[in-house]
Amino acid sequence: MIVLGLTGSIGMGKSTTAKMFADAGVPVHDSDETVHRLYAGKATPLVEAAFPGTVKDGVVDRTLLARQVLGNAEALKKIETIIHPLVRADADAFLARHRAAGARLAVLDIPLLFETGGRNRVDKVAVVTAPPDIQRQRVLARPGMTEEKFASILAKQVPDAEKRRLADFIIDTGQGLEIAKKSVEEIIATLTKEMPGQPAA
More exposed terminus of the chain, fewer Cβ within 10 Å: N or C? Predict the structure, then answer.
């Protein structure tokens, strides 16, 4: 089974692209969705122990957690130490499950793939991109987003040009959904063709 890492900077259209892979029948593991699940399950007691008062009705309240974590490098490191191993274990179980089921291709949707050293966990990387003006427009349209927040998020991410340089595949969402979908279909065809022992057709 080939494992494709899907990544891209904020506002590039990664979630939409991940859905295209899923709609095409490729199993997709979504790191963000996993974190939401963990915040309502396994991670809850761990987060509450590290950051008292952040759990409400048995679920980690992201707003309360953000108040304790944002702008605090030490607190951010602490939450990452709790969450990253749990997300990784969940992804490993997902891959094992689909490998056993005979899947030829699986996608790990990892927002900070290059930033967290995730490159060594995947066989190939697809980077979702868009022109800077489209990216800015999309991000600033999000509720509660400001120029300052956007700049702060970008500063923590590997620049888009560098991500594209490191990518095996590039999916441009700035030219419309149809072109992005065509790129996704081509990547699926290429990677399932590359499977060892599989016919080329």
Answer: C
